[in-house]
Design brief:
The chain is an alpha+beta fold. The chain has helices at residues 3-13, 23-32, 67-79, and strands at 36-39, 44-49, 52-57.
Amino acid sequence: MNKKHRKTLEQIFQQPVPAGIAWKDIEVLLKALGAELSEGNGSRVRIVLNSVRAVFHRPHPHKETDKGAVVSMKRFLKEAGIIC
C-alpha cells in the first residue's frame, strides 16, 4: 500500500465522515488491499475482500462518494478486517 492508498484509507475512517472522496481512489485502494472487483448491472460493483462480499453503486453523475457511501465502505472494511 502506497502513500496515496493510506491517505484514502485515513479519509474513509476519518471523523466526522467526509464527503467528496473520489470513487476511483476507493477502487484503487480496494485493489491494493487485495479485493476482487467485478461489474454488476448498471453502476453496481461487486466487491470481495477477505471472504466478505458487498455491492456498491458507483456515484453518478459526479465522481465523488457521498457520506452515506463512505460510512458503508467503512463498515465493509471493518468487517473485512481492515482497520486504520
